[in-house]
Amino acid sequence: MDQTIIKNIVIVGGGTSGWMTAAMLAKLFKTQLNITLIESDTIGTIGVGEATIPPLQIFNSVLGISESDFIKATQATYKLGIKFENWHQQGDAYMHAFGNVGRDLGFTSFHHYWLSAQANCSQQNQSSFNANDFWQYSLNYQAAKHNKFQPIQSIAQAQMSGITHAYHFDASLYANLLRQYSIQRGVTRIEGTITSTQLTNDGSIDSVTFQNGRCISGDLFIDCSGFSALLIEKALGVEYQNWQHWLPCDSAYAVPCESTSPLTPYTKATAHDAGWQWRIPLQHRTGNGIVYSSKHMSDEQAKQHLLANLDGKPLAEPRKITFTTGRRVKQWHKNCVAIGLSSGFLEPLESTSLHLVQSAIIRLTKLFPRNGIQAQHIDEFNRQSQTEFEQIRDFIILHYHLNAKQSAGGEHGLWQQCRDMDIPASLQRKIDLFSTTATVFRHQDELFTEAAWIQVMLGQGIIPLDYHPLTQAVSQVDLTDYLSNIRKVIATTVNQMPTHEAYIKKC
């Protein structure tokens, strides 16, 4: 392929994804690159407020942005997990809490010992299996339940990991923070509307042209234009793989409302007849939205359901978002890399949108070409991107598929459809393995931990038929003491924490 040294980078689209990309490239490559970012009102941004997962801490740390500065600049709050209400059945609730649950013994995961104790308790007391008991051994869950927060790194008494946290924050404020950061480090910002894209003889992008006739050329183009996909789709024609047969929701409304107390350190996802509603608490407001299938709920019904289930007074009119769940067949094609919504969309059920942006940026920096773009760079980038999208896709499908809900619309309702549908073989293997042996295996670089998979599968109603035989090497007396000690340490730790709101005020 072309041996041109990559020097001039053109990022099309600002927003969170564009400015995250600009900031990291400017930080790492310094004066090696000339970075230009093009912003336009016609591209627009989603900007509904964000809930993240823990890796964003690493991204900010690499940029040198302190947590306290980030919290202040973005009106952020802390996030210890996601509470799921009405997902398995109406009236039930569980949490995907970040961090570990319990403490492993040797090579055997904690949940096997917990299952062994549950089985023994059932035999002795004739009691039924109690899945909710599992969260007694999660520090994150217990802190979230009591609206507490403190960044404890470790709990020496039980040799357990400490609090694992992410954030809720205002996406537009974060983009502003990164814009200032990037410009201070030499990134050139241009505002204008792109009207055409010029290609070279081999089909790569040569330049983009603005409405006023100005032309910007580059060696590598990064498409952060959101659903518009101005470069990767409209200019280069890269196809999109549709996953709506597995994830049928295709619409959303988003609206902010007044903040209410207490300031909860978790995201809430509440299932309804045709999808689910999110709640993201920030310092200055609460972000809300409803995700739904347009085949099972009209726009007006969705809007009214959203407004009827707000904690505070709405601060704006609900804004409609239409999407197609899936991924770009090639996220890197020729000299164009799609990052953000232009590369694909997975609904925000597990708060992965910004993580996909972050991982794509990191992947690009690791595979960044020196003496021209090579096919090997592109192929490996696309292979990793596909694997990551599919793994997250499976985790989201899991929530929908494992339900026992009485679906509105009967056999034609959303939940019945999701329960009866064929699922990817990769997900079926995980479900079958856990159902029969309580075992969870994950790929080394897979985003979601074993603890995450276990919590969702237990929360969605799977009771494993068996557990690991090594649990029998521990006597029932020792097992009872072991579990009791973990519960006591967690309870003592949470009791000593300040409230989430009190901690935020000190930041």
Residue share in helices? 25-40%
Which structural class do you get from the secondary structure elements? alpha+beta
Shape verdict? globular
List how many beta strands DSSP finds: 24
How far from one another are the termini?
Answer: 50 Å
Mean pLDDT: 93
Return the CATH topology of the largest domain: FAD/NAD(P)-binding domain
What is the tally of helical segments?
Answer: 15
Pfam family, one: Trp_halogenase
Keywords: FAD, Flavoprotein, Nucleotide-binding
Organism: Shewanella livingstonensis
Binding site for FAD: 341, 350
Q: What's this model, at a glance?
A:
By secondary structure, the protein is of the alpha+beta class.
Fold and architecture overview:
By secondary structure, the chain is α+β, with helices and mostly antiparallel strands. The protein folds into three domains: 8-79 and 169-243 and 324-373, FAD/NAD(P)-binding domain (3-Layer(bba) Sandwich); 98-161 and 398-494, no CATH class; 251-320, no CATH class. It contains 15 helices and 24 strands. The strands form six sheets. Strands 6-5-17-18-19-16-20 form a seven-stranded mixed beta sheet. A six-stranded mixed beta sheet has the order 10-2-1-14-23-22. A three-stranded antiparallel beta sheet has the order 3-9-4. Strand 12 (205-210) and strand 13 form a beta hairpin. Helix 1 (15-29) runs parallel beside helix 6 (171-184) and helix 1 runs parallel beside helix 9 (353-366). It is globular. The N and C termini lie far apart (50 Å). The mean pLDDT is 93.
